[in-house]
Write a structure and sequence with these properties.
Radius of gyration: 16 Å
Number of strands: 8
Helix content: 25-40%
Shape: globular
Largest sheet: 8 strands, antiparallel
Number of helices: 4
Structural class: alpha+beta
Mean pLDDT: 84
Strand content: 25-35%
Order of helices and strands: HHHEEEEHEEEE
Oligomer: single chain
Distance between the termini: 20 Å
Strand order of the largest sheet: 1-2-3-4-8-7-6-5
Length: about 180
């Protein structure tokens, strides 16, 4: 639990030291990362609690999505009150390097944020090299350093999705 606090504190500190014009946009991403994505992917909060945390940040299900969530739902997409930001929570079993794993993802995207701007946020948020490693092959990916790589992995990646919408995806895999 202490490591989650240190990671979340580092992300908040990294994202609050930004130039004034982009503060509003950066604060939304910082709040979603620290209140929803990192605790959810670290398994510090359940799927339902992550949804509740996103709702506390004024995220709601899209207007066209009126069907009630199933009792065993494993994915949900939430949209900000102004319609600009989207948060997607997803969990389920996958095969990872020949081993069955449980994968949890939380993604943040916006039609107004480019991959470059999300990557800049990521660089500021995950710059502490004691906790995060960045590979030379992908400058938009940060892997969480920890002592049990055979039990789980956690990484953050910024990717451009089809349709030109970039997303910051936080993923945890538990073996």
């Amino acid at each position: 639990m202490r490591s989650v606090f240190v990671v979340v504190s580092g992300v908040v500190a990294g994202l609050t030291l930004v130039p004034l014009p982009s503060v509003a946009q950066d604060q939304i991403v910082a709040q979603v990362l620290t209140a929803v994505c990192l605790p959810y992917v670290n398994r510090g909060q359940s799927f339902e609690k992550a949804i509740r945390a996103a709702r506390d940040l004024d995220f709601r299900r899209p207007v066209a999505d009126r069907a009630p969530l199933e009792d065993w739902a494993s994915e949900v997409e939430l949209i900000s009150r102004d319609g600009v930001w989207r948060v997607r929570l997803d969990e389920g079993s996958v095969e990872h390097e020949g081993v069955q794993a449980y994968r949890v993802t939380c993604s943040i995207s916006s039609r107004r944020a480019s991959g470059r701007s999300l990557a800049n946020l990521g660089r500021r948020a995950f710059r502490n090299e004691d906790y995060w490693a960045r590979g030379p092959e992908n400058l938009w990916r940060w892997d969480r350093r920890h002592s049990r790589p055979d039990e789980y992995s956690l990484f953050v990646e910024v990717a451009d999705r089809p349709g030109g919408v970039a997303a910051m995806v936080v993923t945890g895999a538990y073996f």
